[in-house]
Design a protein that fits this description.
Layout lengths: L3 H6 L1 H10 L5 H42 L2 H37 L19 E6 L12 H7 L3 E2 H7 L6 E2 L1 H20 L3 E2 L5 E3 H6 L12 E2 L4 E3 L4 H6 L5 E3 L5 E10 L18 E11 L4 H19 L3 E5 L11 E9 L4 E12 L1 H6 L2 E3 L5 E3 L1 E9 H11 L5 E3 L5 H4 L3 E3 L1
Parallel strand pairs: 4-9, 8-14
Antiparallel strand pairs: 1-11, 2-3, 5-7, 6-7, 9-10, 10-16, 11-12, 12-13, 13-16, 14-15, 17-18
Helix pairs in contact: 3-4, 5-12
């Protein structure tokens, strides 16, 4: 959430940033924010003055009673009664203006970093890096959903029977390969200095709001209504919320965390060939990395995250590219996002497998996550997160790019985790 003082002091910058995102009615909502904030501040000043006057008169009344000036004291008591009524009215107005301001601020996305280009969709994203050799598989190459059926390693129909579309069942070597990827990703992250956590898979409304899933993604998450809990769309939510409300010291930076969780997304309205197989699921596994950083170091940290994810893809020997997302494709909470895509040779298309984002102070403001700077003043920290990695499309890329006429080779780096080097009939 943007800080209202930042909006006040940098109104034109905010409007230009929202224009990069094609954010509808930006000028109107910013004007509403400024009006609500002005009303809130004026009301606060008026309330403070009324309370100060009431306190002053209360002291005078005590003195008058002591000196025996009962009539004057009673007249002042009448005035304090009027002031109490006025202060109650002002307090109610203040609450209303504060709630109005909060609701307005919740609707405004983060301001893109200066390097982010304007754009309306993924077509406007910038390719900033590409690496790896796209294999020549020949005319008989199969997409992963056909390979999964041929070698009996993923059963999409069984998942549909148990739950519904988008909930696959991994079997035999498919399940072991999935588990191998999770362990490999976690080991790589821990070796890079990230502390591993196992976190809840459901969160409360406060947690979903603090990291920006609510109200922006209301309806896109699975909601356990009886307990008012949400199934997590990513481990970013519980991991980042571990630090909600904390006051850090500069010596605490950097805070680095990683964790594996299943992720749950309704993905309402997603249909068609582009979401077949593992391309888009309602439940999937992902290993996440999260960082809490000093504002002066957060973009160096983002670069470190990007290099770390690159090192994993190099070891997997998958062809990939990195995109800097345009304003219109950047997530609601992010200031800058790099998307990683692996090339699916059998599908002849790029598949997103990771995003690494810097949220700057946007999440920290909602989280009330602060640190004491060198001057002893409280300041908002910066938060970052990245997928390291999301499994479904990585697995799809491995199955498709490592296929042969006889079966599927296992990437060399994964063999110690799987215990086998080949998936065949």
């Amino acid at each position: 959430m943007l800080q209202v003082q930042f909006i006040r002091d940098n109104t034109q910058t905010v409007l230009e940033g929202l224009a990069k995102r094609n954010f509808a009615n930006a000028k109107t909502i910013i004007e509403q924010v400024l009006t609500a904030d002005e009303n809130r501040r004026k009301t606060q000043v008026e309330l403070d003055n009324v309370l100060a006057e009431s306190n002053k008169i209360s002291k005078e009344i005590g003195g008058l009673f002591k000196s025996g000036e009962i009539q004057k004291a009673n007249l002042l008591k009448e005035k304090t009664g009027q002031l109490k009524t006025k202060s109650k009215e002002l307090a109610e107005n203040l609450t209303g203006f504060a709630e109005e301001l909060q609701e307005l601020l919740y609707q405004i996305p983060n301001i893109p970093h200066g390097s982010v280009k304007a754009g309306s969709s993924e077509e406007d994203n910038e390719e900033v890096f590409k690496e790896g050799v796209i294999p020549n598989l020949g005319e008989n190459a199969l997409p992963h959903w056909e390979l999964a059926k041929k070698y009996d390693i993923i059963d999409f129909e069984l998942g549909n029977k148990i739950t519904g579309a988008g909930f696959p069942v991994y079997k035999g070597k498919g399940a072991r390969l999935q588990r191998a990827l999770i362990n490999y990703f976690i080991d790589k992250n821990v070796a890079a200095g990230y502390t591993e956590y196992q976190v809840p898979h459901l969160v409360n409304t406060a947690s979903a709001t603090a990291t920006g899933q609510l109200p922006d993604k209301d309806g896109q998450m699975y909601h356990a209504t009886q307990d008012d809990l949400f199934l997590i769309p990513t481990a970013e939510v519980p991991i980042t919320n571990m630090f909600r409300g904390n006051l850090l010291q500069e010596t605490d930076f950097p805070i680095t965390a990683t964790g594996y969780t299943p992720c749950f997304r309704r993905e309402a309205g997603s249909y068609g060939a582009h979401v077949r197989g593992l391309n888009r699921l309602h439940q999937f596994d992902k290993v996440e990395i999260v960082r809490i950083e000093h504002p002066e170091n957060s973009y160096n940290a983002l670069n470190d995250m990007v290099e770390h994810i690159k090192s994993i893809l190099r070891e997997l020997k998958l062809p990939y590219r990195i995109l800097r997302l345009c304003g219109g494709d950047t997530g609601f909470t992010a200031a800058l996002t790099f998307d990683f895509e692996v090339f699916s040779t059998a599908q002849n298309r790029w598949l997103e497998i990771s995003s690494a984002s810097n949220f700057e102070t946007f999440q920290a403001n909602r989280l009330k996550l602060r640190f004491k700077n060198k001057e002893g003043k409280s300041e908002l920290a910066h938060t970052l997160n990245g997928s390291s990695l999301a499994l479904p499309r990585v697995l799809a890329g491995i199955l498709e790019n490592y296929q042969t006429e006889e079966g599927i080779q296992v990437p060399e780096v994964l063999i110690p985790y799987t215990g086998f080097d080949f998936i065949g009939a």
